[in-house]
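Instructor's aside before we start: the two examples that follow are unrelated to each other. I chose them only because their records fit on one page, so don't look for a connection. First example below.
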Amino acid sequence: MGRPASGSPGGQRATIADVARLSGLSRTAVSLILNNRPGSRLSQEAIARVQAAAAELGYRPNPMAQSLRLGRTRSIGFVSDEVTVTRPASGILRGLLATARAHDHSVLISETSGDMSKVEEAIRILLDRHVDALVIGLVVARLVDVPDLPDGMPVVIVNGRTSNDLPSVLPDEATGGREVAQTLLTAGHRRIGIVSDVPEIAADPRRSVSIQTRFQHCTEALTEAGVEPVWSRTERWDPAVGYQETLRVMRAHPDLTALVAGCDQMAMGIYQGLTELRAPRPGGRLGHLVRRRGGGELPPPGAHHRAPGLPGDGPARDGDGARSTRPRPRAGADAARPPGLGPDPGARLSRRVAPLPPPGSAAPNTG
């Protein structure tokens, strides 16, 4: 019979003492080897014996003992502002977990459920567990307040900024905005609408610290190419507003060939509005997802894909994350159509763009 999986009597966790007995070396020597302490002057033969014994016993360092000895827990606290429960923002969490794992760290998570008044409590819970650092992740890129932290506690804000100017990571909105414009221009679009600008959001960092930069650089790139976009302005962003505003804009400007969505929530409404406008046209299929990285090319004016239906209303989002929206194929010839562009986890920024008919084509139905 072999040894228990844990290597020590009774199936208990193997200890340095167990490794010392099996290798025939002292506990001090074993400790020096297993903890990779320099200057031990132990022979390669002794090191090999200890490593073999540790492997046979299934020895693993005791995290609590290491924490006491090193004064570190090798853990990172993640304060989530709905990042853990919002699919478009899941890339933040995936990246954090992968990086922590690569550096032999664990991640402890505390969720605020969208209530920033709970940030202080969430931080306290993590600090009580002696995390070595904090990451605060936001679904909407905005300015938030973070309470004072212990001296020397490393902290980074992801997708946001703080009133006390802690280190932060934000999307590259300048590049993203210009590439949205360039994608449309390269595809041949010159009559472009933007649905929509919300001046109150752009002017208030408590609501967004990124949208103003995105719109600014998108507009600059269009203007440099001699294109003046048709702006739509609304009081808020949500699918219902996107739907109503699309109907209004397209009826007022039927020659538009492309719409840029201010955020993912508005894009859902744009899809539905365009679907309704074109419903009587045989074979009309709408909707196209344009991504900044790896998402394929935008079709030229007049190319169409079928759009998904309008989801239920939800809270307004800044829409920086990528949301998967796959067209549902119909029976017959459409069943063989490739699905719409799927999610691109590597995208640094994504925007929705819905292609419309070129000038001179049949006017959208306004009934």
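Example two begins here.
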Amino acid sequence: MIIITHTDADGLSSAALVADYFDEDVIVQPIDYNGAFRFEHVLEDLVELVSETPIWILDFALDDPGRVEDLAYLADAQDCHIVWHDHHQWDDDLVADLEAAGVDLRLDEDECTASLVRDEIRLRDYDAHLEDLAECTKDIDLWIKDDPRSERLNVFASLVDDPWEYIDVVLEHGPDLPDDIQERIDERLERDRDLEESAIENRTAYDVGGYSVAITYVRGGRSSQIGNDLVEELSHDIAVICKPHGGVGIYAHSTARPSLGATRSPPSWVAAGILRLRAAKSRPRASGSLPHTG
């Protein structure tokens, strides 16, 4: 079995539940949206090397229609059973194309992928600590944030280089992580919170068509936390977070979401603000300023 999954807690918790359920030899390939090794590269390898192998794809949405042909080839010519679980928004036409190609899709925006996997393959009850793992993962991935363990679970996922380090730990302990890992998480959270506070303090705000738009650059930490703080706690309607790898995250207030179009192609006023911010970041800094590390 091959599992292709996102690198956050939801992706890795989902992989853990699938690996535990099937209890067989499993290859786990983590991917990130902005990593050097992305989904299209994984597909190229699978098309060349794999046949008659179950493939589970977890916690990300396909946004490239050009990959449907590769998936259809794996499902038909290579006789691979492909199962895809996700909770993000999908294009209806792309969903129809994948289903026609033989991909078994399980989509639900009201769940995280871990809780969706748990519910979809419940032919037997999971152990209590794995039930707890699915709920705790849902708490952080859907920004419910009622369980203080969930943030730490997400930080743990960001610390591991090998997905099996996360999988082995949570299969044994669930979301109640052992003390040595808690210490590593404490160190990372302290660093992240300093960087997040800096990004929030250094934001630039614009009034655009009656919306308050905050733009900032993050040198580390959790861009989702920064975006959430800007729109939910500081009452900006829109937050634009420029990331060190060149990507952009766009966040809108939960009670008033303006129509922005696809976040991968932000409106021209967002792009203009990003360019101004990057230009400012590239200028020499005064003595005593924070160094630019991104």
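The chain has two domains: 2-177, 199-282.
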